[in-house]
Design brief:
Layout lengths: L1 H5 L2 H23 L7 H17 L4 H24 L5 H20 L3 E3 L12 H20 L2 H11 L1 H6 L4 H27 L1 E3 L6 H16 L4 H22 L10 H46 L1
Antiparallel strand pairs: 1-2
Helix pairs in contact: 2-6, 2-9, 2-10, 2-11, 3-4, 3-5, 3-9, 4-5, 4-9, 6-11, 7-9, 10-11, 10-12, 11-12
């Protein structure tokens, strides 16, 4: 146990690397209520853009910003398919995810690019410190944006489109904006993950949407929701907790690295089912207490009548 605690810096670092992706999934999943499967493609897009630019001598920080812009462009395409093309949201994401596979192959030119001999944004500094600063800045900027008029309109779009339209807001614009910011953050996560792992792979984005959902659900279950600040903090913490849970699962002797998807699915199921069971138990407890109080009140009434 003590040995596992001493090795927690690894899961915490991974959690911070994927926290930006979780924040992106939070925007579409919770705020826009949009099932965006573009994430699986835009994560690789970020890794591909950063990798190809870095190997061609571009400054790693500029390459990382370019990855963010590439992800935003992918999100805009998904948004246009849904709002202007009137294609179902789920189908729009699937179409873009499929298209991005070929686009990512075009960007990379091959399925895998090694960055082991290239400079990256981490340099000689421990990635955990760099990522802590990037995640805090990203979170605070997101919090500040959600408090602006445009951010409030974006948040209201997911709750009630008809109402927000009656106030004169263009929900198509807010939907496209939300999808672009979401996929920009996802691509940014892909870019930093590629630099930390020293390679970009065409299949690196597979299953990212599930991992992002797991981070959001776990964070909300542990820290709860309320203000924007608290919710985004819960998402970041959820990403770290998810990685710690996965690392703890690997301590089980008969589990192997190939079981990661199964572990993720089990974690998501537990995170979804446990709160439901807790709510049901609380409702039963409240109903039982009310019944007891009602019977006691009736007993007193009868006693008084006698």
């Amino acid at each position: 146990m003590l040995d596992f605690v001493m090795r927690l810096d690894g899961p915490i670092e991974l959690g911070l690397l994927y926290a930006l992706m979780a924040l992106g999934v939070y925007i579409t999943f919770r705020i826009l209520d949009f099932p965006d499967l573009t994430v699986d493609g835009s994560f690789t897009t970020g890794a591909a853009i950063a990798a190809i630019l870095i190997t061609n001598g571009v400054n790693p920080w500029l390459a990382t910003l370019a990855a963010f812009a590439g992800g935003m462009l992918a999100g805009i395409c998904t948004g246009l398919l849904h709002t202007k093309g009137k294609i179902n949201g789920l189908l729009s994401g699937i179409i873009m995810m499929i298209a991005l596979y070929s686009i990512n192959m075009r960007i990379m030119g091959k399925p895998n690019i090694s960055l082991s001999q290239e400079a990256n944004i981490f340099g000689s500094i421990d990635p955990i410190y760099i990522m802590l600063v990037i995640v805090i800045i990203g979170k605070l900027l997101l919090d500040a944006f959600f408090r602006t008029d445009l951010g409030l309109a974006l948040r209201a779009t997911g709750d009630n489109k008809r109402m927000i339209r009656s106030f004169g807001a263009n929900t198509d614009t807010t939907t496209i904006l939300g999808l672009s910011i979401s996929n920009g953050l996802v691509a940014l996560s892909g870019a930093v993950v590629a630099q930390q792992s020293s390679f970009a792979d065409i299949g690196s984005g597979i299953g990212m949407i599930v991992i992002g959902l797991a981070s959001v659900i776990i964070g909300e279950a542990v820290l709860g929701t309320g203000s924007v600040f608290r919710t985004t903090l819960a998402v970041v913490c959820g990403s770290i907790i998810y990685r710690i849970v996965v690392a703890a699962a690997y301590e089980i002797p008969w589990l192997e690295a190939s079981d990661l998807k199964l572990i993720t699915a089990i974690i998501v199921i537990i995170a979804l089912v446990v709160p439901t069971i807790n709510r049901a138990m609380k409702q039963r407890s409240q109903a039982r207490r009310r019944s007891t109080e009602l019977l006691a009140t009736q007993g007193k009434t009868k006693g008084g009548a006698l």
